[in-house]
Amino acid sequence: MRFWATGITVVTAEFESVQHGMTVSSFTSVSLEPPQVLISLQQNTRTHYLISRSRAFGVNILGEDQREISNRFAGRIPDEENRFDQLEPFTINSRIPFIPGGLAYLECKVVTTLGSGTHTIFIGEVTGVRDVDGDHQPLIYFNREYYSLSTK
């Protein structure tokens, strides 16, 4: 799958005052009416546990200048540590933390889950949105490296 170019997101969650997040490239739109998105998470992760309990998640769509954020939430900081340290997260409508500096943010409530192999597919209905003004470009991942889109 490393030859599939994809945008990068950080999926975040909060349950009983515990916040966590992880870098996720398995993200896509499912429906426009109602607005729904899909994420796929490995079942033995802390983020999976929090989403399973809270039935809600956030999607942070990363910009090209957020490689360090992608790496931080991809496990360079262990699950037990605070990956949000010094990031000043914000919220939209709930307690789900979002990371400043991204392209867009989606707050979602889980409407469907489907287990498959080692992963769970969560389909979330979008309940809150925030985007940023400006001419930002997405962070792209391909063949184990980060890329930026060229705007010519």
Polypeptide structure, described:
The protein has 152 residues and is mostly beta strands. It has one domain (6-148): Pnp Oxidase, Chain A, CATH 2.30.110.10. 12% of the residues lie in helices and 46% in strands. Strands 3-2-6-7-8-5-4 form a seven-stranded antiparallel sheet. The longest helix is centred in the middle third of the chain and has 10 residues, at 67-76. The relative contact order is 0.25. The mean pLDDT is 93.
Can you give me a brief rundown of this structure?
The protein has two helices and ten strands. It is mostly beta strands and 152 residues long. The protein has one domain (6-148): Electron Transport, Fmn-binding Protein, Chain A (Pnp Oxidase, Chain A, Roll), CATH 2.30.110.10.
Given as residue ranges, the uncertain stretches (5+ residues, pLDDT < 50) are none
Give the count of structural domains. Answer: 1
- Write down the CATH topology: Pnp Oxidase, Chain A
Q: Order of helices and strands, N to C?
A: EEEEEHEHEEEE
Largest sheet: 7 strands, antiparallel
